[in-house]
Amino acid sequence: MTALEQTIILVKAWPQPSQKYGETVCCAGVTPEGEWRRLFPIRFRHLAGEAQFARWDVVEYRPETPRDDARRESRRVDEPSLHVVRKMPPRAREGFFDPLFRDSIADAAARGESLALVRPRTMRFRWKAKTMADIEAERQRREKTMSQGSLFDKELNAIDPCPYDLTLTFEDGAGRHDMTCGDWETAAAFFNLRRTYGDEGALEHLRSTYEERYFSDGVALALGTVKKRPQQWLLLGVIRLDETSQPLLV
Q1: How buried is residue 106: exposed, middle or buried, by Cβ count under 10 Å (0-12/13-18/19+)?
Q2: What's the pLDDT at 246?
Q3: Do 81 and 163 share a domain, yes or no?
Q4: Which domain holds residue 187?
């Protein structure tokens, strides 16, 4: 039997419909030995409360090398074995992730890596309203996929599509990139903030948080490739370099 492995969670993407699993969440982190791990399939909202995790949590699981994913960082997780061990204390984070930083996406790709941390040289948060037709099509695709889940899976609450395309425009050592913010934290922050400030207020709050507070205090972007299109990189998460336990909304 495969030995258990531990990973410090850094990023957790917004839940996506899956033809095979109903709904999955792309997660990535770093082992205590300093190696990247991409964990899947993580059916996060199906996990028991004690197994649900957040950034900086150290999770333990039984890993398998996937047959359909050649990226060396990828591990298939035995879901019943997954559990939270502890939270990485703030003092332990300082300097721990430094070896994973790359000057650019191109630098990481040249090393044969499919996950990387990059310090952006510039960063701009942008948004564009989706059409009602696009929102409804997204909702229907999710409902159709979720209805195909196992009869033994618990019923999940519906997730409303974000009514905006949220993007970051940033520069690394090789040039400019425009990427969708697909992380759970950004979308969840928008929905939380809109209840108090409305759409425009929520979006402006996110803009100032990323462009001003995060950027001035120090920020890292977690990026990863697409399995079917390994030359394409996605923005997986935005991480404050001075982050301890403070949430995005503070």
Answers
A1: middle
A2: 38
A3: no
A4: 118-240
